[in-house]
Write a structure and sequence with these properties.
Layout: E1 2-6, H1 10-21, E2 25-29, H2 33-42, E3 44-48, E4 51-55, E5 58-60, E6 69-74, H3 81-91, E7 92-100, H4 107-114, E8 120-125, E9 128-133, E10 136-141, E11 145-149, H5 155-167, E12 172-174, H6 178-199, H7 210-229, H8 238-248, H9 255-261, H10 272-282, H11 287-301, H12 303-310
Parallel strand pairs: 1-2, 1-6, 2-5, 3-10, 6-7, 7-8, 11-12
Antiparallel strand pairs: 3-4, 8-11, 9-10
């Protein structure tokens, strides 16, 4: 089985590295030339609990160098999913599968517009990784990965992909309702990402003040209401789970926070913005998520001005 990973950031590199260690033919595709050059010359250094090992997946900036793949895993930012879907359509074998483990809503739907919807798998992962520099990542956390067919695809295909991932030490199971799974991950992002991005705080600091906890709670409860209106089963303890995740990742700066720190385009449209769009369809009010979305969009819309003023 040939596996292509589109987006060789921290998580893409982690999955590609683990699959390479398991003996799979793996190609990492990324636009960052220094990273790709280092991967090809020195390999991928994976740090885990103070121990570093090196694995050697193939890496390239050119999709045509990979040829046809049996499995394509997409790990790009949601803002890049449309472009990635076009690459997937050219790269994936007719009987192949594409798996998205990205943050936010809408990624699987975009992929399903470019390839046979039955070939699309979606899911979430609790593994954590940090990109330390070209060719080097830290494997920061281990947890379950759950995947499933997105649009009526074959469960057996999902089971096969889960087996491949589990064989690489990525403990994976097939979920009965992958749509609910993606919403559950969205709740966590909704309760943490925009708030940390706007305030400059770390994940755990959301829990320090009652006012910040309440802001997070309100954003998550709005998202829960939208999910229920869309027919998605939602547990009662979602907010407490979001707080638990914030505590467990207390020292981390959210991905959206890191994007703002580095003046990169954020995934706000696929997270809080997705809640707002879904809410309009079903007539649910989401003032907190509307405000958070507008503030992050305003902030990233003035990156250039901030740079000029600081310069």
């Amino acid at each position: 089985m040939k596996i292509a990973v589109i987006g060789a950031g921290a998580m893409g590199s982690l999955f590609g590295g683990l699959l390479t260690e398991a003996g799979r033919e793996v190609w990492l595709l990324d636009v960052w030339e220094d990273h790709v050059k280092t991967l090809n010359e020195d390999g991928l250094a994976i740090e885990r609990e103070g121990v570093t090992r090196v694995v050697r997946p193939e890496a390239t900036t050119d999709p045509s160098a990979i040829g046809k793949a049996d499995l394509v895993i997409v790990f790009v930012k949601s803002t890049q999913t449309k472009a990635a879907s076009e690459t997937v359509a050219r790269m994936m074998r007719p009987d192949g599968r594409v798996l998205t483990l990205q943050n936010g809503m809408g990624n699987a739907d975009i992929l399903a517009e470019a390839v046979d919807p039955a070939s699309v798998l979606a899911g979430t992962t609790s593994h954590g990784a940090t990109l330390l520099g070209p060719g080097k990542i830290r494997h920061a956390g281990v947890g379950p990965t759950r995947i499933g067919p997105w649009a009526g695809g074959d469960r057996a295909a999902a089971e096969s992909v889960a087996g491949v991932l589990s064989g690489a030490g990525i403990d994976t199971e097939v979920a009965e309702n992958v749509h609910a799974l993606v919403w559950h991950k969205l709740f966590i992002n909704v309760g943490i990402n925009a708030i940390t991005a706007l305030t400059g705080i770390k994940n755990g600091e959301i829990l320090d003040l009652d006012v910040t906890r309440e802001l997070s709670r309100n954003a998550v409860e709005e998202a829960m209401a939208v999910a229920r209106a869309r027919g998605v089963p939602v547990a009662e303890d979602v907010v407490e789970h979001v707080f638990q995740v914030a505590g467990a990742t207390a020292a981390n700066r959210s991905s959206m926070g890191q994007d703002v720190d580095n003046r990169r385009l954020t995934e706000i449209s696929a997270i809080n913005g997705a809640v707002v769009r879904e809410a309009r369809v079903c007539g649910v009010d989401t003032p907190v998520n509307e405000t958070l979305t507008a503030l992050v969009e305003t902030l990233q819309g003035h990156y250039g001005e901030r740079r000029d003023k600081k310069g």
